[in-house]
Amino acid sequence: MDRTEVVTITNMCMVYDGDKVLVQEKIDDDYCGVTFPGGHVEKGESFTDAVIREVFEETGLRISSPALCGIKDWSNDDGSRYMVLFYKTNKFEGKLSASNEGEVYWTEIEDMKKADLADGMEKVLEVFFERKFK
Questions:
Q1: 7-130 architecture in CATH?
Q2: pTM given for the model
């Protein structure tokens, strides 16, 4: 039995400061709406280095000590797997700035939950806030 498979690995990070979270309003045609910053892990890149890089590229903030808090994965129609590693941190520095992926801003957690969320973010928030892993 073959134990290898094609996997796309991505990450998402909830950067928080008290009751506020950093969100991104993605404008990508494939994935738009309010979400947390993140992106793809490059070949050979460590998972931690990837989330630090992605948050910096999309927000201008340099995070540190990102803590893995969940994983979500699913199978694609072509038989490959897609995996998202969820991180949290309240350690950051720098000046907030948007990227070509969308505007970024701080919002209250409850206001984020009422926003026009990106597809599937309702379930993602359950992992971040309620520790539901299904």
A1: Alpha-Beta Complex (3.90)
A2: 0.91
